[in-house]
Amino acid sequence: MQAAAVDNNASFGPNKIEEGGQRLRDNLSVLFAPLTDTKGLGGKGSTLPATNTLFVVAPQDEFDLIAGEEVRLAEPLRTVLWEISCSEMAEQLTIFHHSQLSNVYPWEFLHHPKEAAKEMTDHFNRLVAYFVWSVLVEDTPKDRAEVIEDIISIAMAASAPPLNNFHLDVRERVEMALEALFVDDRQLVTRFLHKFWLDFKHNVWISGVGPALQSIQLCVATLHKEVMTYKMTELVQISGLDENSVDLHSIVYEKIVALTVQPIYLKIVSKAKRACAMEDAHAAARVLQCTPHGVADSSTAIPCTSSSPIELLNLVCQLVAVPLHHDSSPTAVVAATDHQLAAVELLATLQHQGRKTFLATHPVSSLYLMHQILDPKYLAPHRRQALDVFAAAVRWLRKDQKISSNELKGS
Fold this sequence. Notes:
The chain is mostly helical. The protein folds into 3 domains: 12-34 and 71-167, no CATH class; 170-266; 277-410, no CATH class. 65% of the residues lie in helices and 2% in strands. α5 (86-101) crosses α8 (141-159), α16 (309-321) crosses α20 and α20 (363-373) packs across α21. Residues 1-20 are annotated as: Disordered.
């Protein structure tokens, strides 16, 4: 008994706490294991965790039939809370909960609404089933009451301001709130966006590239106005920013652009590439003429790997912010107030670092997409300046006169 008491006292050290956290993560990985479709005796499909079952223990005879297969079961909540606190449990549950919800993209509710809704519902039901099972598995009413009190404590800890989305920064919290908003069919903005997607896909091939992009810009402007008008209180509470904050408006605007454009982006990229094919070829040739032989093949089609104009603009910001040489002066955006000088730095960076990117092979269509969809007044200052620099670089590339590779190197 004395030895057991010593062991129990020693178990509360830092190593034991870390071990408890790892056991919790292992426990939750079983709880949130991927679901697999199986066939029952009646031929109907059923959905089970990939690690067999969570809570139901099979008879011993059935275990004997599973040759060498280990069935992992989740540990009851009361067992887990012997090693970690309710706050730590709330943190881990928040992480798992957000990771599961982020696997369902908003546009999946348009194409496969039943499957997407079922996936989110199944995740919630499994979490509830775990808490219910943790109560029922206890032997005495007193133990069950203690588990219920623990569940209430976990819920209160998860909803407390210091722990609510504790692992997310301001941008991530706002983006998550907008994602949740645009999957709620009860919201007017969600229904408006779904209708826009359907109308756009019906009319995209019979309309010109200009009207198509203008309709996207109008849709984004409408959604942004509605969200900032009717959801401002929630956004301020989530972000902790002032309602007139430039950062809040830019974060909301950029996320709305991404959510609006992602399901239809490849269609508008295809139209823009066809409309700007000749200018893209001429501009790309001027970018690639200083590329070493064999490094880049101009005949090879470079796919567009971005999913929205915001991602294209992010690439531009990265190229503008990266010096060409380690010993060079400060970056183009910081050091050059003259956009022409910054454009030269950007072109040099494209030649050496971005020669295989969509920006280098389709600079004119990339700029056209960003100019036609994005409203500069809602962009962050550094993004707006990077867009101006890229526009200056593209204007230089579209000049009719030819220049030699030596002249370009000298610039």
